[in-house]
Amino acid sequence: MKNLLEGAVLGIYEELVAKTPGACSCESCREDALAYVLNKTRPRYSGGTDTGMALIALDLQKDQTRAQLAVIVLDAIQRVAANPRHPKR
């Protein structure tokens, strides 16, 4: 069983962190942002069947779903950048 949302969130994070001024992309900040997003969203688990995985993957590729995730990811990036667990660089 796997939460297919993780891959989608990671892809959106990688796109947005590069475009966000002042955002740190170190491993600690990345993990904090991803954890924030995954805790704020409904998980999309697949039981391993090809049909289930295809339906979830299709949903995660919709523009509306990606836009909703992008808003949450950007919020996470900004929150972590404002309160990093390491000294500001």
Outline:
The chain is mostly helical and 89 residues long. It has one domain. The protein has helices spanning 5-19, 27-40, 50-61, 63-82, and strands spanning 2-3, 45-46.
Structure description:
The chain has 89 residues and is mainly alpha-helical. The protein contains 4 helices and 2 strands, in the order βααβαα. It has one domain. Helix content is 69%, strand content 4%. The longest helix has 20 residues, at 63-82. It is elongated.
Break the fold down into its secondary structure elements and pairings:
Elements: E1 2-3, H1 5-19, H2 27-40, E2 45-46, H3 50-61, H4 63-82
Antiparallel strand pairs: 1-2
Helix pairs in contact: 1-2, 1-4, 2-4
Strand content: under 5%
The outline comes out as elongated
Strand order of the largest sheet: 1-2
Helical proportion, percent range: 55-70%
Q: What class would the helix/strand composition place it in?
A: mainly alpha
The SSE order reads EHHEHH
Overall structural domain count = 1
Low-confidence stretches: none
Which sheet architecture does the biggest sheet show? 2 strands, antiparallel
Question: What are the defining features of this structure?
Answer:
mainly alpha, two-stranded antiparallel ribbon, elongated, single chain, 89 residues, 4 helices
